[in-house]
Design brief:
It contains 9 helices and 8 strands. It is α/β, with parallel strands linked by helices. It has one domain: TIM Barrel (Alpha-Beta Barrel).
């Protein structure tokens, strides 16, 4: 684990330098879904504090087991209406908003004593049927509606673009998300987060302005087929 964390941090720093950016402006989100609590604890011992989970029941077990560590938890999986309450109550971030009624449920269920829940809207950049995300044409309307909800704080945009091996093709998708963020900000949205880039393409994402990269395999190794 220490070697993997150092390697990823080195690559992030190199990409930031290549882009002329401050590496401190890029958050490393460790995607810990399907990993045991012991792996999260080991990663936290290396200074990582942001962790991403997709499977609610598994995530809640880890949140309970590691509560004393004071970690920041991000829900990055597909959101189901019947599971919004524990997400609203226990997580600090949600990255996959693509439907207003889900956002409304999260806002209504966010405890009044907690700070507003940080959220990102997921955009389906390529219009892929099997992927979640709001179509580009509907983004502005959804962003306006989500941004008005009282217990949410709309922070930015998130994407999972088509798999590309050519860096220039990877960068084109990420550049498009950055353009969409800029368009919303020109209308006063005040977004500060671009959640884009994973183990296979995070360098390209950083070059196009990513402020948060979601890294699983490069930190924890490959998961088995059953995971």
């Amino acid at each position: 684990m220490p070697e993997r964390v150092r390697a990823v941090r080195t690559e992030i720093a190199a990409a930031a330098a290549r882009a002329g950016r401050n590496v401190a402006d890029i958050t490393l989100l460790a995607v810990s879904k399907a990993q045991p609590a012991s792996a999260v604890r080991a990663a936290a011992a290396e200074g990582l504090c942001d962790f991403g989970e997709s499977y609610l029941n598994e995530a809640l077990e880890k949140l309970n087991a590691l509560e004393a560590l004071g970690l920041t938890w991000h829900f990055i999986g597909r959101l189901q209406a019947n599971k919004t309450r524990p997400i609203a109550e226990r997580f600090q971030w949600v990255h996959g908003i693509d439907r207003l009624h889900i956002a409304q449920r999260l806002s209504a269920q966010r405890p009044v004593h907690a700070p507003p829940l940080n959220v990102c809207i997921q955009v389906n950049l390529a219009g892929e049927d099997r992927k979640a995300g709001v179509p580009q044409a509907e983004l502005a309307g959804l962003a306006a509606a989500v941004g008005s909800l009282p217990r949410l704080r709309l922070r930015g945009l998130m994407c999972i673009p088509p798999v590309e091996t050519e860096p220039s093709h990877q960068r084109a998708w990420f550049a498009r998300l950055h353009e969409l963020q800029a368009a919303l900000n020109a209308q006063g949205a005040g977004l500060d987060t671009l959640s884009m880039g994973m183990s296979g393409d995070f360098e390209s994402a950083i070059l196009e302005g990513s402020t948060l990269v979601r890294i699983g395999t490069a930190l924890f190794g490959s998961r088995g087929p059953a995971q």
